[in-house]
Amino acid sequence: MAKNDPYAALRYKEFNIFLIVRFAMVFAWSMQFVVIEWEVYSITKDPLSLGIIGLMEVIPAVSLALFAGHVVDQKEKRGLLLKCILGFSVISFGLFLLTWPKIIGEWPTDIVLYCIYFLVFLGGFVRAFLGPTIFSLFSLIVPKKVYPNAATWSSSVWQMGAVLGPALAGFSINWIGVHWSMCLIFGFSLIAFVNLLQIPKKPILNPKIGENVFKSLREGVRFVFSTKVILGAITLDMIAVLFGGAVALLPVFAQDILHVGSQGFGVLRAAPAVGALITMFTSAYFPLNKSAGMKLLGAIFGFGVCIIVFGLSTWFWVSVLALFLSGVFDGISMIIRQTILQLRTPDHMRGRVASVNSMFVGSSNELGAFESGLTARLMGTVTAVVFGGTMTLITVVTTGIVSPAFRKLDLRKDIEEHEKEE
């Protein structure tokens, strides 16, 4: 196989099926989150309610994250992922019923709102297992020598779902309403379930099956905190997502600041993911492994600048451009972080490491949404976004100064070692 083959991972049939499953789930989840954001803000007209959506999901996701990682390392991965998709399908179908116009018209507004929060809360339990399971199954489908290329394609598909899900959500709300938009989401979860059945069961590589759960969790946490490169990468990304969570306030910008309605909201929501998607397809031909540390620092710094510009803008297309460029930088960050995790994590610890990563990075999306909603209530929407971007810049500069080893990080040696193992 050619050393710089940009399609190396795509030559494995199971990996292509895996990409379809991942796309369908990311598409469904991101579309659902946007539809629920729109519905909740339409009901309450309160930016804090958008933060509460994130908080409802992040509480169970963080609470169960470490335990979920232990379970993933102990169980067969495909079967566990099937159960996660089934759980999401049940929740999306519940939201479909809850947004039925007859229920909206007859039930008290507060009851509808609390039921939405409850289903989002249940979704947090599913997400606690979903991320680590996908991360672990990934490593069982392709050989280690194509991990960097596979990580690029996997991240690209993630971003494609993140592009099309929010974009279609904005347009479908306008075309067919919230209720039938939820029906589309349920349909995509079924597509993921059916395709996953085509992948056979995979072996469990953990040699410590039946290990005490607390000992297992301690081992996973100790590994992450002792591996400075992994810890530094996920901490940086966590801070950027936590304080740069302007996306959570997009309904406010679309409705009250830029006055662009649901279609403009869809464009704003999709802009960052379009930028990230372009970055990821480009990186398949131009890998980011050389000087990865400096590239990661530079990408997150650029992300912070874009968030500040977006917060200050009162022109729709300037806002779209700022969000697009934030996605470009975020795409670079995501590829480098995923490559670090795949290359530096032992097979038997993937579930636990992915769980710690989800606590740091994945859940910071929801914590960032809550932080943005809360600071928007206290400071005003524009000030909250600018504050978040500024905190991101401060964090990147501080990390670059205090961690010269991270600045010098280069992943080419790791890739060469894995090629020798193959």
UniProtKB/TrEMBL annotation:
The keyword Cell membrane applies. One of its GO terms (cellular component) is plasma membrane. Its main location: membrane. InterPro entries: MFS, MFS_trans_sf. The chain crosses the membrane at residues 15-36, 48-68, 80-99, 111-138, 150-171, 177-197, 229-254, 266-288, 300-325, 384-406. It is found in: Cell membrane. CDD domains: MFS_MefA_like. Pfam families: MFS_1. Keywords: Cell membrane, Membrane, Transmembrane, Transmembrane helix, Transport. The keyword Nucleus does not apply. It is a multi-pass membrane protein. One of its GO terms (molecular function) is transmembrane transporter activity. This is Arabinose efflux permease family protein. It comes from Galbibacter orientalis DSM 19592.
